[in-house]
Amino acid sequence: MFDWNTIDTVLLDMDGTLLDLHFDTHFWLTLVPQQLSQQRNIHLHAAKTLVEQAYKKVQGTLEWYCLDYWQQALGLDILTLHYSIAERIQLRQDSMPFLQALGAANKKRILFTNAHPKSLSLKLEHTELASGLDAILSSHETGYPKEHPEFWRHGLAKFNLDPARCLFIDDSEVILAASRRAGIGHQLGIMNPDSKKPNKRFSDFPAIDDYHLLLMDSRSTPLS
User: Fold this and answer.
1) Residue closest to 148 by CA, chosen among 63, 71, 38
2) Which domain holds residue 117?
3) Molecular function (GO) terms listed (predicted)?
């Protein structure tokens, strides 16, 4: 799938790419509406409608990913709610073997995430993910989400990266496209970000549902 001799750095999304997206799916689509329904004493269906409308209003912006924004917008203690279901935070089963193989092959492993720093800290606290990474960049440090070209300009400059020799892995086709426009040389989609949902399809990028496929792909230059 890839000639690893042409790749020095692997840029990785977190939620849905290295971690099971089910935590976030459950949190934002189930727990938040439930809590809003109880707090405002409204029907659950009405709460879900309010939440969905609020989400659509800022989708693709930095606010969409900001816990502080949602705490103010919804009037809920978003961080405390995160901690209340922290046991649901799980690594994908194939993530650490892949990250370890990249490290053994001297490939730089950098997390490029839209996760808010408070959410990022919680997820690193409850997993061994940090041990498989060389560096981390949250979009909140740059002031722009990964959907925006300024995020990529900032990230590439911060780590002095040659974009042509980077592979970016994400479960969002929109964000993969943003990375390509920024000059990133290689993209890969993740078809099964949420373990409780069917695989998704990618139109414009190669995609996999198991990192072991990269490790075993006889058509590519072996990682190690």
Assistant:
1) 63
2) 4-20+90-216
3) hydrolase activity
Residue 1: pLDDT band by 50, 70, 90 thresholds? Answer: confident
Q: Which of 45, 64, 87 is the last residue of a domain?
A: 87
Q: Are residues 139 and 69 in the same domain?
A: no
Cα separation, 198 vs 194, whole angstroms: 8
Residue-wise DSSP of 89-134: --B-TTHHHHHHHHHHTT-EEEEEE---HHHHHHHHHTSSGGGG-S
Single-letter residue type at 183: G
Q: Which residue has the tokens 């020799």?
A: 165
Residues 6+ positions from 57 with CB-CB distance below 8 Å: none
What are the pLDDT digits (tens) for 23-78?
A: 999 999 999 999 999 999 999 999 999 999 999 999 999 999 999 999 999 999 99
